[in-house]
Amino acid sequence: MTEIYWATGAFAAGTLFAWVGATFWGKYRYKALLKGAEKEAEVMKKNGMLEVKEKFLHMKSDLEKQAASRNAKMQSAEAKLKQRELIFNQRQEELQRKTAEADAAKENLNNQLLLVEKRKQDMEKLHQQEVAYLETLSGLSADEARERLTESLKDEAKTNAASYINEIMEEAKMTANKEAKKIVIKSIQRVATETAIENSVTVFHIDSDEIKGRIIGREGRNIRALEAATGIEIIVDDTPEAIILSGFDPVRREVARLALHQLVLDGRIHPARIEEVVGKVRKQVEEEIVETGKRTVIDLGVHGLHPELTRMVGRMKYRSSYGQNLLQHARETANLCAVMAAELGLNPKKARRAGLLHDIGKVPDDEPELPHAILGMKFCEKYKEKPDICNAVGAHHDEVEMQSLLAPIVQVCDAISGARPGARREIVEAYIKRLNDLEQLALSYPGVLKTYAIQAGRELRVIVGADKMDDKRTENLSMEIAKKIQDEMTYPGQVKITVIRETRAVSYAK
To answer: Of 108-117, 332-341, 357-366, where does mean pLDDT reach its minimum?
Structure first.
């Protein structure tokens, strides 16, 4: 029992001792934790205060830098203002100095002007006295003397100027003629062409004379049908192995020749077949005309030509002028124009185009009242050719005024092509008689001294006496001669009448 009590007491004492120990240790630990927390709070407080102080120092440093920068800028601006103020003061002083100098110069100038004006008045008085003295000596007034001196100077200046101008003109004419001849000769030498071979008849060759009877047909029905279909006179005579096709229209003659060729090859010759073949051949000839025009413009390098103008160029193959084939003449003129334009430094393509189209007015079948040059110009305008091309076409016989250098080039090259020996055929006797008639017709008018028919009868120059008629009368005389030639004579193309009335003054230096 005692042991039980002792054990219980010991347990209780141990428990109490353990509780007291635990309580004491808890308080000690609490105090330790509290003390640690206080130390940590103190450290954090110190750290916070350091950070705040550091930030404050940084901010203070930044503010001081900004303040220093602003102060520096203000000092710089202040220095600039002081510098400008100094410059302004200097300029103001300089301006005041210059103003004072200008005032002084102005005053000096006014004084000099007054002095000059006074001297001028003195000189005028002296001049008047001298003029009066000279007038007294010469017996002439100043105005009269001035007029005489002016007239003498004018006459002398006119004489010198006229002499100088004449020398320049003579030198220019000599040089111009030389250069023009050189260019023309070069152009002629560089272009070669055949002579005229055009006729108004075509000879159709056959293998035997037996075919003549088949062409004539029973009671001449075949030949009548052929003539009616083609508009060509067919002459079947005793000429061996040949039939003559006669007609003024080369296209019709070509249609008749090709139709006869096909009929003879085919062997079937009767009116119905003739009309059929002629219709086909006519279409072939039209196609050949277009093809010829295309080949021509391609050969000459003429681009962008209207199709209708191309067709008209092809029709030139079947046209002739005084025996000269029109297409051959146009090609030759085009090449001559290109060569001459190149020699003169102009555009050879445009010159070649104008030369090709210059006689396009001769192509239409109908014969309008307009000259062929004017008609050709209207065709070119209608088909949107350029103005200088149209003018060159219209002016190559002087019907319209020349407006560009292409026009005289085309005129000259047209004359060169037509004037070649053998280019155009005309009976010599008729040619000479026509020229003589032209000259005699003009000589029949009173006041006419000499007449010259030039350019193959295309121009008639009439020289009249200056003392026998005035300028107005010369104009009337030109129109009267032109009208009389139109009414009484037959001639190709046109004739230009130029009446010359000149006055000559001759003096001799001894």
So the answer is: 357-366
